[in-house]
Amino acid sequence: MKKIFKACLIACSLASIPVLSSFSVNAAQTQQADPYVLFENVTQQAFDRFQTEWPKVQDDPERLKTIIREELLPYVDYEYAAFKVLGKHVRDIKSEDRQAFVDAFKDYIVTVYAQLFKQYKETQKIVVEQTRGLNGDKIVVVKSRIVEPGRPDISVIFKLIYRNDKWGAFDMEAEGISMLNTKRKEIGAAIDRVGIKAIIDDLNDKAAQKIKINQKEPNND
């Protein structure tokens, strides 16, 4: 399972980025004060929904995109992540192209996460490390582990930023791979060669890809 997850992450990161449903308004506002508590609750709720709806997902894998949009995307700062990916180029791009890139990147994130979580097993759970003090930090690192009986834990690290009065994930690192850094290098190498519109078209094409689950996929590492 660990090798399958890593292979999928590498494949996604070569074209990708990073994480995170829906509490009541009051609960969400309370949890925004502590990103660790927020993250623990959001990811647990997402995994609970994976488990509850997995038989339906196996019949209709595209349902994974719906779960990601509803359970994870509201807690992803995809705009900040998109601008980080563009890096130095962000100021040279027309405002309408920047917005088109952000929109395409948002949809792309949904597909990337759906591709990653199609490896989910009903015996898995996620464990978030214990909360520590914030000390006024605006960027925090949240460490978590995907645990499955009889298999090595998968370490997943999320980076969150406090922006616009809320916390949002902008990067994910698994097996030592930062999807933000990988995508930034890819975009940086391509943008001068093909232009921003071609990159936006490519993101939209990848976002539209259908999710497929191989029912006979082996579970061996």
Automatic annotation (TrEMBL):
Keywords noted in UniProt: Signal
Pfam families listed in its UniProt record: MlaC (PF05494)
Keyword Signal tagged: yes
Superkingdom, taxonomy of origin: Bacteria
Alphabetical list of InterPro entries matching this protein: MlaC/ttg2D (IPR008869), Tgt2/MlaC_sf (IPR042245)
Cleaved signal peptide residues: 1-27
Keyword Signal included in the entry's annotation: yes
Name the UniProt record assigns to this protein: ABC transporter substrate-binding protein
The organism's taxonomic lineage, starting at the top: Bacteria, Pseudomonadati, Pseudomonadota, Gammaproteobacteria, Alteromonadales
